[in-house]
Amino acid sequence: MRQPGQTLTAFWCERVVYETFEPDSPAQVSRCSRSNPAEAVRAIRVDVRAIKDTLAPVERERALRWTGHGGSLGAVAALYRGEPCGFSLSSGGRWIEWTVRPYLAFDVSGLSLLPLTRAKFHQSVRPGR
Question: Whole-prediction pTM value?
Answer without folding.
Answer: 0.74
